Amino acid sequence: MNTYNGKTFVQITYHRIALSGGTAIYRYDNGLTIFEPYLKTTRDTGKSKAKWVRHWLSESKNPYDYDQPTTGMFNSGEPRFMYGDLNQKKDLVIFELWEMGNVLKIYFFPKFYPKNARGFTKKFAINQYKRKGD
User: Fold this and answer.
1) What gap in Å lies between CA 94 and CA 11, rounded to an integer?
2) Which of 10, 22, 23, 60 would be 43's cystine partner, CB 3.0–4.6 Å?
3) Measured between alpha carbons, how far is residue 82 from residues 30, 58, 125 in Å?
C-alpha cells in the first residue's frame, strides 16, 4: 500500500501482449489485483455521451472474451495519465502508460473519489514525474 495526499492506493502493473489498431490487450502476471488477469483498452469511437473519454477498459479471465467496459479512461491533461472510476464513483482509478504503451500501471484508490478527479489526477501525475525524474 502506498499513500498520496493522505489517501491510500494500490499500484498494479499489466504488460501489453497484443496491439491491433486502437485496441491493446494487457496481462497481469502474478499476485493479487482488483481486476481480472486480462485487460483490453479500446480507443473511444465517440458513440458514448461521456466527455473527455480517450479509451474504454474491459476485463476478462482470458485474452479473447470481454464484457462491457468496466470504466472509461478519461483525459487528465497530462501525457501518459488517464483516470476512471469503479463502483459508481466510489473508487478512483488512475492509469499510466509506460514504455510507449507496453506497460499499463494502475493506481487504485479504494473508497476515495474526489470532486475534481481530473485535477487530482493531474497533481498526482506531476508528483509521479518528480519522484521518477521524468
Assistant:
1) 9
2) 22
3) 24, 15, 9
